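Quick note —
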Amino acid sequence: MASCRYCNQEMRLASSCAVEVLHRSGVAFRLPAFGAEVRHPTPKGWTGRCHDCGVALGGFHHPGCDMAECPRCGDQLFACDCRFDEDGDDIEDGDDIEEPGSFARWN
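Predicted structure written out below.
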């Protein structure tokens, strides 16, 4: 089993991750909870956990989860080109840098 380095909980057992908001130039972008995704909605009547990170319905996905939607563009968070303050100072808006491993900013 794996522990989330942000909430320190066992990922497959935690009901939610502690990461609920990302920031861009200080502006908060609230992450959609599991079940509130727009682009790839959770099927109606679903009562199980996330197939990738294991959070319960209504919880927030652990960083790196393939179901987590970007709160800015709506694409998969680990694969989109949006940058957030949490990414660090070395990446600026407009940079065309591809990050190895797709979700390097959380690793």
